[in-house]
């Protein structure tokens, strides 16, 4: 069970303003992979982004932390499994019908 609730989530749009709704990330082999920015939000002072690969199923998404370096946002992998689970569960709760 997540330690956050819907009331803790604030929808944001800093990445969309910086990059638009389409972003490209580099995979492990150095290839550029296009993604659609599905959502971005802040929880507990930390920003997160939800990206969907162009060939991904509707229920599949990638979840990243957003770290701001001055005015430039960077996406980083969520290393902590518990954090990833909490944030993914909260996002699902806020976006998927019951």
Automatic annotation (TrEMBL):
Lineage top rank: taxon: Bacteria
InterPro entries: UPF0473
Pfam families: DUF1292
Protein name: DUF1292 domain-containing protein
Native species: Paenibacillus terreus
